[in-house]
Amino acid sequence: MNNKKKNEGQTDFSYYGLYLLDYLRTNKFEQADDTAFIRERADRAAETYERARLEGYPADGAQELAMDTLLRGLHYSRYAILREFADEVPEEKREAFVLKLLPLVGNVFSVYDLSDDNFALSSDYDLLYTELTGATVLYLDEYGV
Questions:
Q1: DSSP state, 75?
Q2: N or C end of the chain: which has fewer CB within 10 A?
Q3: How far apart are CA 129 and CA 76, in angstroms?
């Protein structure tokens, strides 16, 4: 896919919209193709920034609040979590491995609320980690890299 086609329709995104689009694509979130979702989040982030500045926050503080609004509930993608388990896979094969394994462990992820911004601090994260470790080991034993 060439860059012109890839970016078609996104040239009118705001800073926050472009940031979110890149974040969603990089971490392979399902919402990466949802223009309405991206615009709504970007608009809320911009409003948060503007409101914070009007309330006297310094630019850095307002930006932090805006980014929190933009990324709320999007800190843990299935792809990014699973990529952590691919450390044993050679770098050149890692991407393909994660993309092959991802649909096979969907049922494991379905039990957990990845939209919780504090998920990594919960006991559920430890359970997910254990289940994904087992699934990854079984996959590697059966199919290799």
A1: S
A2: N
A3: 13
Is residue 84 within 8 A of residue 115, CB to CB? The reply is no
Residue 136 makes CB contacts below 8 A (sequence gap 6+) with 82, 85, 86, 101
Residue 3 scores a pLDDT above 50: no
Contact 70, 44 (CB under 8 A): yes
Mean pLDDT calculated for residue range 132-138: 86
pTM for the model stands at 0.77
Beta carbons within 8 Å of 21's beta carbon, 6+ residues apart: 10, 13, 32, 38
Question: CA 89, CA 55: separation in Å to the nearest integer?
Answer: 49
Residue 86: what pLDDT?
75
The token pair at 115 is 């939209």
Which of 19, 11, 130, 2 has its CA nearest to residue 68? 19
